[in-house]
Amino acid sequence: MLAAVARMLERSRQGRVMVVRVDHPPHNFMNREMVAELDELVRSLESDREIGAVVITGKPEGLYVTHYDVAEILAGVKGVGLAPPPAVAGGLLRLTAAIKRIPGLREAAARTPARGLLELHLIHDVFLRMNRSDKVFIAAINGPATGGGCELSLACDLRFAADIEIPIGLPEMTIGFNPGAGGTQRLTRLLGTGRALEMMLEGRTLSPREAFEVGLVNRVVAPEDLVDEAIATGERLGRRAPEAIRGLKRSVYEGAAGTLESGLAAERKWFMSEAGLEQSLAAMEIYVSEVEQGVTPWADPEARQRWQEGTVGGGGSGS
Questions:
Q1: At 268, which CATH number?
Q2: Is residue 319 assigned to a domain?
Q3: What is the rounded distance in angstroms from the CA atom of residue 56 to the CA atom of residue 45?
Q4: Which end of the chain is more exposed for a tag (fewer CB within 10 A), N or C?
């Protein structure tokens, strides 16, 4: 008899609020299984009239969603086996988008090197459904939220952060490629082009108070009160008419300059084009090696600074 697969998203309910606690120690990295669980969760909420809001936080003390598992990105890029020019990458991704809509072809493609391309589409699709949902999504950031963890938070409608020294941001450029799960589009829409571009180019992360000052998070809360305040907010906002919530969210997200879909299509194209380059592969190899040695570079202040400054061999600086 096969053992049950441990779930990474622990769900509980308090009134009209669903609390989702991410539990994937030791680092709480996001990976394909977590994204699949999030996809299942968001789909299950589409017909649930009893839930009005969702709070996402980390279950282990001091851990939220640190970032997407770089080892998995590295393996996926190697599986594709090429770093196509942007125009070719865009064509391949459009083909994959067509394939994913046909169940038989989708399952077959998932057993080929195209799996990584399908997964890139999936995380964008999940976050778009969150944006289009009639539920209010609140990120309760209780630990490092870089890369995919920051992008998950950006896909939420509100972001609360614990008043502790944790990094929040998108340091992907330090290992040679742009954010790939919506960060280039959502951070820019939130902070404006100049500030967002500087943050991403520098690989700069912000403390919760710095993030609050620029508008990246909505509130900074004492650690012991973080989840309770997020739940209380969810209870309040979740009582609003679902149709009004959905209409407001779609007006805000889709009515911004240009469509989010067109921005995401561009992001996927460039992410795919960059992640397979030699210097990016080398940087990811180093990053994974550091994780295996017990250091999570984007979560460790000294290590993170080295990556931000481009002093790590093989990084985005080409050193």
A1: 3.90.226.10
A2: no
A3: 14
A4: N
Pairing mode, if any, of strands 168-169 and 145-146? parallel
Alpha helices (runs of H) in 215-297, residue ranges in sequence order? 226-237, 242-255, 260-275, 278-292
Output the furthest CA–CA distance in the chain (Å, rounded).
56
* Token pair for 306: 């080295």
- CB contact set of 112 (below 8 Å; sequence gap of 6+): none
- For range 46-61, the mean pLDDT: 95
Q: Catalytic residue, from 37, 72, 119, 172: name it.
A: 172
| Residue bearing tokens 């770089």 | 70
Instruction: Classify residue 247: in a domain, yes or no.
Output: yes
The confidence score (pLDDT) of residue 68 equals 96
Higher pLDDT: 262 or 22? It is 22
Whether 243 is catalytic is no
Query: What domain range includes position 52?
Result: 9-273
Q: What is the DSSP letter of 3?
A: P
Number of domains in the chain: 1
Cβ within 8 Å of residue 206, ≥6 positions away = 167, 168, 169, 199, 214, 216
More confident residue, 137 or 240: 137
Residue 151 known to be catalytic = yes
Does some domain include residue 295? no
pLDDT (tens digit per residue) in 90-107? 666 676 666 666 665 555
Catalytic residue of the set 37, 72, 119, 151: 151
Residue 183: which of 142, 137, 156, 150 has the closest Cα? 150
